[in-house]
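Closing statement on the pyridoxal-5'-phosphate sub-project.
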Amino acid sequence: MNTRPNWAEVSLSALQHNFRCVSRLTSSDVTICSVVKCDAYGHGVVRCSQALEEAGTEWLGVTSTEEAVAVREGGVKSRVLIMTGFWRGEEEAVLRHSLTPAIATVEHVESLERAAEVLGHPQKSVAVHLKVDTGMSRLGLSMAELPKFLERLKQSPYIVLEGIFSHLASAEVLDAPDAIQQIAKFREVIATVERAGLTPKFRHLGNTAATLARPETWNNMTRPGVALYGYELPFSGNGSVKPLGLKPVLSWKTRIIATREIPGGTPVGYNGAWTAKRATRLGVIPVGYGDGFTRHLSSAGRVIVREQYAPIVGNVSMDLSTIDLTDLIGADIGDEVVLIGQQGSSSILATEHAAFAKTVVYEILCGLSPRVPRIYTE
Ligand SMILES: *Cc1c(COP(=O)(O)O)cnc(C)c1O
């Protein structure tokens, strides 16, 4: 039952529009792996995967086996790449659901081989994508280990190297020297793989920033995430990136549930962190940091009511926040309030919340708590 007036609207047509924008940008021999990790950046992994499949994605990228299984159980047939690999004990689920794991260690290879034996894997082949660390120093096989690892892989009765990939640390910094170095190292990786006599079908390096700004990272697969949800990154450094005309997919809305008139000088909310300077009409909304409405918006951010901006006053609390309605003639209980999204010519992007919270838009999107119901619209 979802009757609390606090909901997110997810526009599947905007998601599909964004997928098509990115597809049009890259050439037709570049396969898009649509990244739907972290519950599709908070948008809902199953419905978003279904919509992306309908729009033509052949690949989806996730970061947990659980999520990949949920996508399969949602009837999605597209290939699913578990970009972070799998954890001990998950290998049978990986095979049973025809998922494609990233691998980076001999242990990964051995456990897939064992699982293939146990399950009597019918095709006697398990496609994997090898992750190589080209400078992120997080996951991935080191380049020094690569030649030996490839020899081990060649001896495997089951494992087929279908892809090779890496991940950039600073793709959105347009003149970042480390990005240029990583791109060069990835070329070396491909050359090493080819010298070993292996010919992985897919080679991929790009996230959204690289997809938009660095065609040299496309190879023949690229992995955009945040762009699909309508956000072109805040790029920095020297250079420019042509905007793609993406549409934000998620709107977040609530309603005014109470109003009150207070005289000037009255403190509002926890710690009286804000005090009315004049006679003020307050509105109360049933949204707080428990929903992912960041506390950094306290006495700083704004919402939209009746197509106009209303400031957030006082501290955002767990379940409630207060807004100043004094200048909004007629605003009243029941009025729709836009937290993220558009109403008339007023709009608030998730990047605005990110700026107040001194974080990235990703954290705002995937921070939207599960208690906020997602409503899917066309
Ligand atoms: C998250 C992620 C992406 C997508 O990143 P965006 O910046 O959202 O486009 C691509 N590849 C990997 C390995 C990731 O973890």
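The two ends are 22 Å apart (CA to CA). With this model delivered, the sub-project is considered complete and its resources will be redirected to Aim 3.
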